[in-house]
Amino acid sequence: xxxxxxxxxxxxxxxxxxxxxxxxxxxxxxxxxxxxxxxxxxxxxxxxxxxxxxxxxxxxxxxxxxxxxxxxxxxxxxxxxxxxxxxxxxxxxxxxxxxxxxxxxxxxxxxxxxxxxxxxxxxxxxxxxxxxxxxxxxxxxxxxxxxxxxxxxxxxxxxxxxxxxxxxxxxxxxxxxxxxxxxxxxxxxxxxxxxxxxxxxxxxxxxxxxxxxxxxxxxxxxxxxxxxxxxxxxxxxxxxxxxxxxxxxxxxxxxxxxxxxxxxxxxxxxxxxxxxxxxxxxxxxxxxxxxxxxxxxxxxxxxxxxxxxxxxxxxxxxxxxxxxxxxxxxxxxxxxxxxxxxxxxxxxxxx
Length: 351
What we know:
The chain has a single domain, classed as Purple Acid Phosphatase, chain A, domain 2 (4-Layer Sandwich). Strand 2, helix 3 (88-96) and strand 3 (100-102) form a beta-alpha-beta unit. The chain has helices at 30-36, 53-57, 88-96, 112-126, 137-141, 180-193, 213-225, 268-271, 328-339, and strands at residues 14-27, 61-66, 100-102, 129-131, 144-148, 151-159, 196-202, 229-233, 241-245, 251-255, 260-263, 272-285, 288-306, 309-315. The chain is 24% helix and 30% strand. Strands 1, 2, 3, 4, 11, 12, 13 and 14 form an 8-stranded mixed β-sheet that branches. The protein has a 6-stranded mixed β-sheet with strand order 5-6-7-8-10-9. It is globular, with a radius of gyration of 21 Å. Helix 6 runs parallel beside helix 7.
């Protein structure tokens, strides 16, 4: 009699990989409007992104904080700066390779409800995913999910406020404001329909190089709930990157502030932003799914202008012309030291 031998076949792991990049504030001041305006009254912002475009397009998922609404309307407002960008800004973002934008920030209501709805109409028509401001409660209830290479990414976005502009009564969906309970609930919802939750937070103190205690408290809270990647913006300057690790070993990647990406602001700290990149690995064994975040990278980027014209984004490491930026190498080393102080393994090339 031949003894039967039970053969146990171990399931073969399936491995999926995707890279995600994120940039900070795209803040279209009047000087950028004038620089991009053509003789026929149209606009072309695409040349401004020409040199950074390859670094954005090589990623599987690319995120930006589009801080000025693509309202395309005349405001005639005075007092606090009101932003209202032409839709051609969106054309430039798409051309550069961006897939998703946050539109929850302190300027969301600058052009009123009409500005928000105009922007959303553009995003819908051009298949650019938006999050953080919506056209209805039904729209807000729909978690934004983008799938690349077998990995699904959910995007949530919230702002600390609206510069005092009141949200229209009964229309809270026009902007997601930071509310801890709501955000925790939506992170949990997003975890059920995606592999990776990307949380965008418009928060912090303007022009401060380090996060404040509220920023630290909020990211710790949301990391514990299940956010995997947190992209912060609003300070208009770079703040350090950090890992937040849970007791079970799960890590959350945090960029407290990605600074300005493209803006008309002055001052070297406000003119240097960058592209944050992260590799996401998804391992599936049977019914078990594991997500790993690894290989964080950051590419410092400088916004050049000459007399408020000729705006162009330059990878900082490529600048060797002192007429573009004196002591570019010195600024690069200072930026590297600052951004990596809490993440020493951070790399500064995308090769």
